[in-house]
Design goal:
It is globular, with a radius of gyration of 16 Å. It has a single domain (12-21, 45-162), classed as PCu(A)C copper chaperone (Immunoglobulin-like). The chain is mainly beta and 178 residues long. Helices cover 10% and strands 42% of the residues. Strands 1, 2, 3, 4, 5, 6, 7, 8, 9 and 10 form a ten-stranded mixed beta sheet that branches. It binds copper (II) ion.
Amino acid sequence: MKPLRLLTLASAPALLFVLAACQQGKAPTSQETATQSAGGAVGPTAKPGISASDGHLVLPVVSGRPGAVYFSVRNDGPAAVKLIGVHVTGAGSAQMHKTDGGSMAAVDSLEIAPGAQVEFAPGGLHVMAFDIGESVKSSGTAELTLTFSDGDKLSMPLRVETMGGDMPGGGDMPGMNH
Ligand SMILES: [Cu+2]
């Protein structure tokens, strides 16, 4: 894959440090120390040292609008990794975005420092999924695959939800529906 030179997100490091600071207390639980893997949230395609959890896809209220994917990803490996691509099953395309104030911008790559956990959450980083097919809506499940700069991938299941159901005003994505 492409080597280096992909770092474009100026504000990412600050976010990473904040998140990393919240995650310093992590220690293996007794029932998990036997395995070398970093957490059980990910399937067999897991990238070593990287774990992801709490993946969910929020469908738009209006069909045809993009959906948003949120999840947590953690780097328990010894070196920084760079997330360079995302894929959502059943979606025509997907792209990393970052909401900043009232607008959002595409994020081409995202470096995750050793020991850092990055949250893709409403109001910040998210994955935008375009052209979501009917198969996703009817089955209620989807899968997110992350691609890293070294070519490794990591997949996780996504819970499918509908925007606005329980969320006041459905307003967790400023700028998305306007
Ligand atoms: Cu977006």
